[in-house]
Amino acid sequence: MNKFLSVLFPLLILFAGLALRAAYFEEVRHSPEFRYPLYDPEYNAYWAKGLATDDWTPPSGVRDPEIRTTPHGRPPGYPWFLALIHLIFGVSDTTPRIVQMLLGVINALLLYSLGKRLFGIVTGFFAGLMMALYWVFPYYEGLLTYPALAVFLLLCLFHCLYYWAQGRRPGWLVPVGVLLGAFALLRPNGLLLLPLLLLWILWLGWRWRLSWSRVAFSLVIPVVVCGISLAPAFIRNYIVARDVVFLSSYGGINLYVGNHPEASLVEPRIPELLVWAGIENWSCFDYPAIVRGLAAQQGVESLRFSEANRFFYKEALGFIRENPGRFMINLVKKTILFWGPVEITNDTVPAWDKYHSRVLHYLPGFPWVFALFILGTLCWIFDRAVQRKEKSELELFLWLTVPVYCFSVVIYFVAGRYRVPVIPVLLLFGAYGLRSIAQSFSQKDFKKVFLLTGIFLLASVLTHFQLPGYEASQGTWYLRHALACRRSGNLEEAVKYYEMALKSDGDRAAASANLGRLLIEQGQREAGMDMYRSGLEAHPGHSILENNLGYELYRDGHLAEARAHFERAIKNNPRLALARINLGHLLAEEGDLEGALQHYEEAQRLEPGDYAAVYNTARIFFALGKTSQAISHYQRAVELMPHAVDAWNNLGYCHAVQGAWVEAIPYYERALEEQPSYALAWNNLGNARLASGDSAAAREAYENALNARPEDEAALYNLARLARHEGKDDEAKSFLERCLVHNPDNAQALALLRELDKNQREEE
């Protein structure tokens, strides 16, 4: 019978896991978030794509996170994993999700195997089946984030520890160190499991009566191997940034997020964000700007990421030291939130994603998992302590990973995905509780069945109760879904969800700004501007709304009114580079080039990776006759955005103005590589080749300009010039006449035509 079940049970788990994931994948692949993720998933996708393709162009609407030149902000493990998938299968939105969902099924089978070894085949089956069907796992497997990989590493770690405890062979501790290091590359707080592991090894050494030398050897192996596993990240940080950062540089700011006087305990908000970076909410893309803002506040030119990290740790620890009571109260609240019934919002809003999902909606939530864990823990304690049943050495370690891992999270701040790595352990002990009920029923011990069922139901009531009263924001879900719909091009849906966000509890100012811009892009200018105005009535002085309304007034020619809005935006948010760029445009149009340059340069100082700031600085330098400075800024612009055809063309033109015609040619050619239909670059290339003495190549370039843009005035005039240069006056007149048909007021064409007519009369 056991042989039959050993085949049947894993097949059932496999089928259940694959069926659920296939259904959910079919659903989620049609959602806008599948291709256009936000926050950490977007950052992970950008980082991995950069590693796989060396294309580091930031996504539209976000800052350059400067990954290539700064220490790791987030732990690098998951982007490395994602980049490996891209390198093997090619860059795709689909493949990583498929890999992660297959990994999720493997995880369920690994939990089955672990449960079978520790508690028997029935417990293993219950644990594996629950893991295959618990909604959180396919949900996160469908996102570009780490839980599936983290769970896999932990389950492999537990298996290696099981084999080591069974045979006491030190060789099994080598993969233990590797796996713990790999887990820390996903979740650095997981390193808190290392002291637990060492204490457990010490306890086993005492229990097994091993020699101290053998115990010491067993302690050293995982520590050394774990350190070796983490060394590449540390070395890379030093080589790239000449900065001593162990794994990632966000530890300090994450501790500060959860430990300052205004901490929400669940959102990564800090009160100084507006001063430091000109934003109210931050993502990984914003961290370099935060460090620069912190440096400016401290009156220094720049800060290393390690220095910023130490600053945040110092601030957080100072708060803890000065407010021990408040810290303990917050710690208790965060612990309750960690084990609470609601999935806490972070990169996504999982509570509302589940609600809106046809596949996941009716699947049991976390309270049932936690209630089963409570039941299983009580059964396990009773069986091991009271009935003296034989136990595996690994059971205690597994159970202790739950509170230790919980503590490693709650000293920072809480989010739903942070508890996912320990859910398999909860399910394992929960399965033990289910097996206890099933075993009692099979033995007809109905008194015990009722007792255990009653404990489970009571635990279920308690686990459904959320003490701090946290609720996931539906307005946040509407707003983020609208952003994803907007990026995917589904504008009708985007408008609908922005309007729903405006009526709910989300960030209404952001909804007003985004909806206004979308309406304007759809041609509804008045409706969009009215949206900006109503947003400002509800949120006076909001810098983004001020900037957006100012920009539309500027486009309409109302320069004085636009200027007032830009200046208010800058006054309320001095680090809003976009408002400075827009004000620079306005000043340049008014002829105040020096004033425009001042704002462009300040925008560039605030956002060194902002292409628009660098490009427009170059443009003004050229207009002021400072061609060398313009060249250096255009070179920086094409470094930031290698596909920027205007910058490549202008870079060539700057060299041409200096008389360096040959040097200009490669820049024009690069612009045309990016955009073969770029008529202006073809004309400029023709001029450079003509000035270099290559008339045939010049004619080819002018003709290409004409092919790219039929009846292009510049191309027709340039062909006329070339024909005149070659003594073909009739051909030149033909080109000029075509040019004047298109634009009778073309002064250059008229002047050349008069010259040709005069020459012809003189010859006659």
Main traits of this protein?
single chain, 764 residues, mainly alpha, Serine Threonine Protein Phosphatase 5, Tetratricopeptide repeat, 73% helix
SSE order and pairing:
Blueprint: H1 2-28, H2 32-35, H3 39-53, H4 77-89, H5 95-119, H6 121-133, H7 136-141, H8 147-167, H9 173-184, H10 193-208, H11 212-241, H12 251-258, H13 273-277, H14 287-297, H15 305-322, H16 324-338, H17 350-356, H18 366-386, H19 393-410, H20 423-442, H21 446-463, H22 474-488, H23 491-502, H24 508-521, H25 525-538, H26 543-555, H27 559-572, H28 577-589, H29 593-606, H30 611-623, H31 627-640, H32 645-657, H33 661-674, H34 679-691, H35 695-708, H36 713-725, H37 729-742, H38 747-763
Helix pairs in contact: 1-5, 1-6, 3-4, 5-6, 5-8, 6-20, 8-9, 9-11, 10-11, 10-19, 12-15, 16-19, 18-20, 18-21, 20-21, 22-23, 23-24, 24-25, 25-26, 26-27, 26-28, 27-28, 28-29, 28-30, 29-30, 30-31, 31-32, 32-33, 32-34, 33-34, 34-35, 34-36, 35-36, 36-37, 37-38
